Structure formats: C-alpha cells, structure tokens
Amino acid sequence: xxxxxxxxxxxxxxxxxxxxxxxxxxxxxxxxxxxxxxxxxxxxxxxxxxxxxxxxxxxxxxxxxxxxxxxxxxxxxxxxxxxxxxxxxxxxxxxxxxxxxxxxxxxxxxxxxxxxxxxxxxxxxxxxxxxxxxxxxxxxxxxxxxxxxxxxxxxxxxxxxxxxxxxxxxxxxxxxxxxxxxxxxxxxxxxxxxxxxxxxxxxxxxxxxxxxxxxxx
Length: 217
Known about the structure:
Elements: H1 9-14, H2 24-32, H3 37-54, E1 60-65, H4 71-77, E2 88-92, E3 97-100, H5 113-131, H6 136-144, H7 152-172, H8 185-200, H9 205-213
Antiparallel strand pairs: 1-2, 2-3
C-alpha cells in the first residue's frame, strides 16, 4: 500500500490505533473510544483511505484525502481545497475520478438527506446538471435546500472581486470602478455586472447585503 497521505495518519499509527486489529468491530470500538468527534472522524478518514487503496473491487490507482488532492484534479472536479462535504478523491485504473465522503457513526443510524446533500451535489457536479445527467429527484431535493450549483472556482472569484472592490473604495472613496480601469479591467467589468444584477433583482440576498454594507452604488 502507498504511504498514507492523510495528515493525521502518522499520529494514529503512533497511538497504535490500528495495531492488532482483526475485525471491523474491534476497529469501531477503538475509534468510538477516542476523545472527541473530530478525532473519530479523522480516524475513519484514515481507514477509508487505506480501504480504497487496498480493495481491488474499487480499482483505485490513487487515493487522495481532500488536503492532498492535486490542484489540477480539484479544478477538474470543480472542488475547493476546503471541506464542503467531500473528504477525498480517488482515481481508478481507467482514469475515472470519484469523490468520496466519510462519516463515522455508531449504532448505524440512518443518514439524513441534509447530512449528505452537499456531498451529493458536489459529487454530481454542476457540469452534470448542465448536461442533463443529474437525476431529477436529486436535483429537486438539492434545489429545495438552496444548494449553490456554481463551481467553487466561480464562487471564489466573486469573493476575490468583492475584496478588490473594498480596496478600491478605501483608496478612492467610492465604488464606481470604471469599466475600462487600466489597473484592473476585470474588476470594472465585474462591478458593472453586479450593478446590473442588483437592479434586476438577480443577486442572492447574501451578496446584495454585502454590497449594500459597503455602500455599493
């Protein structure tokens, strides 16, 4: 098995968490005895990485916990290097990429749709929705809880432009960025688009509030 990439793997090995384990029940008992929910979750993520890497039925050529996923693969899948419901990605021998989520639960309670919804939306990806391959029922339920279908890179771009707008206002005293501002023409175009969306009522309430708070004109 390749060297474990989860940041907590070495710590659990030093604690002998996996030493001498022969059954899943034994492993489950040891994880349950850990001090807090975060530690239990981390331990199960380490187990999941090892499981996917060693079980041939998954045909995993590479397994990456979220913190170790190469940037190019994150971009391909429309994911950010933060925990938005996906705990890792594995690549099959055929080159297919699959996201996975890990949840440690004792007594096997049924998982609720809300617990899984973010992962399901990210795993299906916004591209699947656009191409019409996302199951209608799954799309409907994600829509009901307000799932944001845009890729993480798009959402991060909005946040970046907003921070640039705040810096512009602090520097010049207003938010009227020229569309063809030589220093940052992309910001000028973004501001114009936000102004049109604000007037047209197509901005989300959260973004509208952020813009209002800085006196967006």
